[in-house]
Write a structure and sequence with these properties.
Elements: H1 9-29, E1 48-52, E2 56-62, E3 72-76, E4 80-87, E5 105-112, E6 117-127, E7 130-137
Antiparallel strand pairs: 1-2, 2-7, 3-4, 4-5, 6-7
Length: 151
């Protein structure tokens, strides 16, 4: 007795795609990434938070192990912040890596700021691996209170 089965070319393709996904999961798993998280990861380093109040714009970046003299911070074009530096790779001898989740090498991150800055009034501080940059807004960028007249 013979059994008839319907040939579905897409079935082979589906199996291959499943195998490919497993291989990619295994590959990215070496760096601590899984299929649920790696497509959505930011490709920029360092991660930056940006906020403002009436007088200043603040940027905060996580830079573990960095020293302030090894960083270059610039405000250009009145409304762009650039953070440059280099993360040194540890040089352990005769070891076998099982995970390497932290990247190494030179980095540069440029962020468009929401308003114009006064480049002469920028303060940068590095504490506990967190860089905080405080940038004064230009007078034109500060909110103005408009008096309302009765009439």
């Amino acid at each position: 007795m013979s059994i008839l089965t319907r040939w579905e070319p897409s079935g082979d393709l589906q199996q291959e795609m499943t195998r490919f996904r497993r291989e990619m999961d295994r590959l990215f798993g070496r760096w601590g990434l899984d299929s649920e998280t790696w497509p959505g990861l930011a490709v920029s380093y360092p991660a930056v938070n940006l906020w403002e109040d009436d007088d200043f714009v603040y940027a905060e970046a996580e830079l573990p192990g960095q020293k302030l003299p090894d960083l270059e911070i610039a405000v250009t074009g009145d409304s762009r912040l650039t953070i440059k530096g280099e993360r040194k790779e540890p040089a352990p001898e005769k070891v076998e890596w099982h995970r390497q989740e932290r990247g190494f090498g030179s980095f540069e991150r440029t962020i468009d700021l929401p308003v114009s800055m006064d480049a002469s009034k920028v303060d940068a501080r590095l504490e506990n691996g967190v860089l905080t940059v405080k940038m004064a807004k230009t007078p034109q960028a500060k909110p103005r209170k408009i008096p309302v007249k009765a009439g």
